[in-house]
Design goal:
This protein has about 70 residues and is of the alpha+beta class. It contains one helix and five strands, in the order αβββββ. The chain has a five-stranded antiparallel β-sheet.
Length: about 70
């Protein structure tokens, strides 16, 4: 995801308290954002199975909600 898209996802997550649907481009996993770490450019995600993970902005993309 580009820096602009990352910033938009983080704004929606942190300021508007939205859980943005994301897809991991490496393994196809789906998750919803619940936080961002700007220093490392990562998004914290809750996966469909309830597990928590952290993805770098380069390994995820915004996904349509299922």
């Amino acid at each position: 995801m580009t820096t602009t898209n990352y910033e938009r996802v983080c704004y929606r997550t942190e300021q508007r308290e939205e859980n943005v649907p994301l897809r991991n481009v490496n393994n196809g996993q789906l998750g919803y954002s619940f936080g961002c770490t700007f220093a490392g450019e990562t998004v914290q995600v809750k996966l469909a199975n309830g597990e928590l993970d952290s993805w770098s902005r380069d390994e995820c993309t915004e996904s349509p909600a299922d």
